[in-house]
Structures are given as structure tokens and as C-alpha cells.
Amino acid sequence: MLASLLFGMGLPTVVCYVLLASTVAPSMVDLGISPLAAHLFIFYYGMLCMVTPPVSFAAYAGAAIASADPMKTGWAAWTFSLAGFLLPYMFVYNESLLLMGTVMEIILASITSMLGVICLGAAIIGYLLRATAVIDRLLLFAAAFLLIKPGLVTDLGGIACIVVALVIQLKKKSRAAVRLATVSRGE
Fold first, then answer.
1. Which of 37, 61, 68, 148 qualifies as a FRET site for 158, CA 20 to 30 Å off?
2. What stretches of the chain show up as alpha helix (H) in DSSP?
3. Can you say whether residue 32 is alpha, beta or left, with left for phi > 0 and alpha for psi between -120 and 50 degrees?
4. What is the pLDDT of residue 113?
5. Which residues of the chain are under the pLDDT cut of 50?
């Protein structure tokens, strides 16, 4: 990941991919990762350098168009793309996302991956059904990372974290509704 981000900084797409395909991908394939997953992994991280400071030239171009501060725009772009940093690991750990496997495996992998990315996004932004507390964020981060790796135990653990976070959110929401009703009646 780090090699792909560093080698890709400031390079055009084709040059970045050719460089990474000749330097990083062979070592990943030697580690037992399928060639398709390895090449998608390096390509994805090579392109994420466009929103990773300090070289995030895509964010800086957007900042120039919007007349905004380039560094603030770069960090904001990086924050918004954090959920994207999880996806290449999902390719490596779960080749069903690359449509390699049975139909059931592909459907299950797609559902758990979507849940994981939603949880990571909610944890980073700090909002699920309402603003999240520290415990909610920790549960959502745990769910996201448990849902990266396929398997019954990790998937059930991730779903359990999601359920607990949702229960906490719903209890807070119902308490707030009761307080609001009490205040509006003048009690």
C-alpha cells in the first residue's frame, strides 16, 4: 500500500500503473495473491495518491478552481476518501468481489463489503442515525474491519457490532424524543 502511494505520487495514470505493475505487483503475486487482485490493489492505491496529501494534485486542482486553501482541500479530500482505502484490501482478502466464485459467494461478499464501507464512512464522518459518540464510532470501526475478511466468524462479529451501534443510536434517539415531548408539554 505504502509503496503504491509513494510511487504513484505526482504521476499520470498510465505511468503510475506501469511503474507499479513492474515493481510492486510481482512481489504481491509471490505472496500468494491472485494476479488480478494484486494489479487492482496497486492500481487503486496508485490512484488514491491523487487525494493523499502532500501531493494530492487532484484536490489542489479543485482548490484552484474553487479559490480555496489547497492544504485544507487536500486534507478534506483525504478524509472523504478514507473509506476507499479499505476497498483494495477487500479485493485481496475476498476475490468474490472480483466476480471470482459462486453466485452466492459473490452476493454475500457484496453485501458484507457494502456494510463495511458504510460503517467506515459513518465512523469517519461521525454520523449514523444521529451524531455518534466515541463508543458508536469504535463499534463502527470494528464492524468495518471485521467485514473486510470473509468468513462466518468475522462477518457475524461485524454484524453484531453494527446491531449494537444501531441499538445505542436508537435508544439515544428515543430518549431525545421523550425529552422533547416533555419540554413541549411544559412538564
1. 37
2. 2-8, 13-23, 25-30, 35-48, 57-66, 70-80, 87-93, 103-125, 134-146, 152-185
3. left
4. 87
5. none
